[in-house]
Amino acid sequence: MPNTPKIDRAHVISWLSEPRYSKYLEATRGDDAVALDLYLWNIGLAQAVLKDVSFFEVALRNAYDRAISSTWSGSDHWC
Fold first, then answer.
1. Which one, 5, 27, 36, 59, has least CB within 10 Å?
2. How far apart are CA 70 and CA 37, in angstroms?
3. Displacement of CA 56 from its chain's centroid (Å)
4. 3-class SS at 43?
5. DSSP count for the chain of H helices, then E strands
6. Per the domain annotation, does 21 fall within a domain?
7. Which CA distances in Å does 21 have to 5, 12, 60, 66, 75?
8. What's residue 1's pLDDT?
9. Alpha-carbon span 39 to 15, nearest angstrom
């Protein structure tokens, strides 16, 4: 890839950490550019999953609220 800028591994490690970056380097046989692409892909995947988890969390919290509210009347049942 002639237009790919050189990646400064020390700079990447300074913000990502050696243990974390080494996993990506192992997976990409030491190719810094591919390792960073893989890291960015992983971030995108995590964002997509966490978005769905957050929707589920709100739905579950609301279900608990409905169940508890139907059992205890009034606003002081949490005291």
1. 5
2. 50
3. 16
4. helix
5. 3, 0
6. yes
7. 18, 8, 35, 45, 50
8. 46
9. 13
Query: Which tokens hold the place of 37?
Result: 């692409």
- Reported as half-sphere exposure (CB side, CA atoms, 13 A), residue 24 has a value of 21
**Is 0.90 topped by the overall pTM?**
no
Residue 48: inside a domain = yes
Please check whether residue 77 lies inside any domain of the structure.
no
Q: Which domain does 57 fall in, by range? A: 9-71
60 burial via Cβ count (<10 Å: 0-12, 13-18, 19+): exposed
d(CA 14, CA 48): 26
Q: What is the pLDDT of residues 38-66, one digit of tens each?
A: 999 999 999 999 999 999 999 999 999 89
Beta-carbon contacts of residue 42 (< 8 Å; ≥ 6 apart): none
Whether 38 contacts 27, CB under 8 Å: yes
Residue 39 falls within a domain, yes or no?
yes
